[in-house]
Amino acid sequence: NARSLKITESNVIAVLIKGLSNPFYLPMFSIIESKINSNGYTFSFYKIEENEDEISVALKLINEEKLKGIIFLGGFFVQNEEKLKKIKVPFVISTILNKDIIMPNCAFIGVDDFEESKKIVDYLISLGHKKIAFVGARKDDKSIGMLRKNGYIAALKDNKLPVVDNLIFFADKNVNPYNFEYGYDIIENILKINKDFTAIYAISDSIAIGITKKLLEIGYKIPDNFSIVGFDGLRINRFITPSITTIKQPIEEIASSACDVLFDMIQNGNNKQKIIKFDGELWVGQTTRKID
């Protein structure tokens, strides 16, 4: 257990991951581990539980261990500027952007979740869908889940479509929303509440895959009965039928950039705050169709 080991090296980079069950992070994790080790640093991994605050864990590690830097994967960072300022080593927050937090020794790297979410909902609307269900994270998610929900709402408003409260669904408080089981389990409850929609936007491919599997099992046809879109661009999508229409994130580039930026801060003292935005790609699979 990494937490029980006393690290004495002075070249340790800690990688804190929240949401280990989300398959989106797995290829990023392997790239980051390889780059850290090949650049002469010691890789140390810490899993952050859903009920833990990743910034508090990071501050504890800095006090206890000799860290050169930190890479965060996942987590909540939208409204935590004061706590983030307590981190006195270079750190990178990967997979989320925050243009409002300005501070040194810090980098935000990822796609613009709001704009990319808006993009995929605009695509559904372009196919003729006007009633689109939204399957999100927990209501208290003030990070990626909130940004993607806001993008969904903005797309509806920009296209002069109503925002229908009983077409917006959240995970229960103690549920991990970024996995296959959440999508698989929630869709039957959604159908009991409201069937008056033609498309579903799930904020991750994992959720979308779970929803699709359950709908097919209970007799629906996809995309004949419902169009379904996700977000992330999981590699598994190439090997399943039907493949999910999604926003494909450049996972390898984000992971590699997170390491390079952190190395630059550590080695060159380049501590000016950085925001590095990558564009997502609308990838059209087999779960969407045009309707009249």
Summed up:
The protein is α/β, with parallel strands linked by helices and 292 residues long. It is built from eight helices and twelve strands. The N and C termini lie far apart (56 Å).
Please characterize this protein's 3D structure:
The protein has 292 residues and is an alpha/beta fold. The chain contains 8 helices and 12 strands. The termini are far apart. Strands 2-1-3-4-5-11 form a 6-stranded parallel beta sheet, sandwiched between helices. Strands 7-6-8-9 form a 4-stranded parallel beta sheet, sandwiched between helices. A two-stranded antiparallel sheet has the order 10-12. Helix 1 packs parallel to helix 8. Mean pLDDT is 90; it is low at 3-9. It has helices at 25-38, 54-64, 81-84, 113-126, 144-158, 180-193, 205-217, 251-268, and strands at residues 12-18, 42-48, 67-73, 91-94, 106-111, 132-138, 168-171, 199-202, 227-229, 246-248, 274-278, 281-283.
